[in-house]
């Protein structure tokens, strides 16, 4: 995350940290005890992808430190990438990861670990609505390393008109995407935040409206972050997981 501020996992307890072959790969969001929602491009771009090399942590504030009291570790029982994901334009950039702990269980609710709500499919928030993105991604475009600690930034939803204007992304934004940025363009998701949450507070509850997907570099003028529009996937998520209802922990 560029700009914004450091935060503890307790403020974003649905944030998952996904590793591949021991290296940090992507963010994710816990939507039910056994399922993490993330981005398809996190896995689709890996050659000879090996699901056994995936590790997932919940309750983690520091990317390279073990916090045994607060974190929970899982392997990936399976990963489902959207069948219509297109790596060319990032359409349908969404994937589900099923958790399996060493003893065969799923996530246990705690101060550092909790599920996030999925908004009903007909929910439409107005342009300008303030939401928040969180992750361990780079603090500036071109940085060598990911952020050592979890960060969050407030960003505002953009209308499709604004996001597709000449100086912005023109025809690259599909109906399955939602754009968000900070009005002064100083805060944004960046490399490594992919798969992580864009959450918006409605009626005192936090809902997952976006999955970090793509953007032209990070925190550039007129180049907002582009997120997978989660409300377009309620049916897909229900079908793939067999879940019907989502509640906060
Ligand atoms: C990336 O490379 C990436 N500014 C993710 C988000 C954004 C840019 C790049 C949005 O994973």
UniProtKB/TrEMBL annotation:
GO MF term list: serine-type endopeptidase activity
Catalytic reaction equation(s): Preferential cleavage: Arg-|-Xaa, Lys-|-Xaa
Main location: secreted
Gene Ontology BP annotations: plasminogen activation; regulation of cell adhesion mediated by integrin
Subcellular location as annotated: Secreted, Extracellular space
GO CC, any one term: extracellular space
Stretches assigned to the Peptidase S1 domain: 1-242
Broad enzyme group: hydrolase
E.C. number(s) listed in UniProt: 3.4.21.4
Keywords of this entry: Disulfide bond, EGF-like domain, Hydrolase, Kringle, Plasminogen activation, Protease, Secreted, Serine protease, Signal, Zymogen
Protein's name according to its UniProt entry: trypsin
Upper lineage: Eukaryota, Metazoa, Chordata, Craniata, Vertebrata
């Amino acid at each position: 995350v560029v700009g914004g501020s450091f935060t503890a996992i307790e403020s974003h307890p649905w944030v998952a940290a996904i590793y591949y072959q021991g290296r940090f790969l992507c963010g994710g969001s816990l939507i039910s005890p056994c399922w993490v929602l993330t981005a398809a491009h996190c896995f689709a771009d890996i050659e000879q992808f090996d699901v056994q090399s995936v590790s997932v942590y919940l309750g983690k504030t520091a990317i390279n430190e073990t916090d045994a009291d607060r974190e929970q570790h899982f392997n990936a029982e399976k990963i489902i990438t959207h069948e219509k994901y297109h790596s060319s334009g990032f359409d349908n950039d969404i994937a589900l990861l099923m958790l399996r702990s060493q003893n065969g269980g799923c996530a246990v609710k705690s101060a550092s670990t909790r599920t996030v709500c999925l908004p009903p499919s007909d929910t439409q928030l107005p342009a300008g609505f303030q939401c928040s993105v969180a992750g361990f991604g780079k603090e500036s475009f071109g940085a060598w390393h990911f952020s050592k600690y979890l960060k969050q930034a407030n960003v505002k939803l953009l209308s499709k008109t604004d996001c597709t204007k000449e100086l912005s992304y023109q025809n690259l934004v599909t109906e399955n995407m939602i754009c968000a940025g900070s009005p002064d363009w100083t805060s944004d998701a960046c490399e490594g935040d992919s798969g992580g949450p864009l959450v918006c507070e409605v009626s005192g509850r936090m809902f997952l409206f976006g999955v970090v997907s793509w953007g032209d570099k990070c925190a550039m003028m007129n180049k907002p972050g582009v997120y997978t529009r989660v409300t377009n996937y309620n049916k897909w998520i229900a079908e793939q997981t067999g879940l019907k209802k989502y509640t906060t922990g």
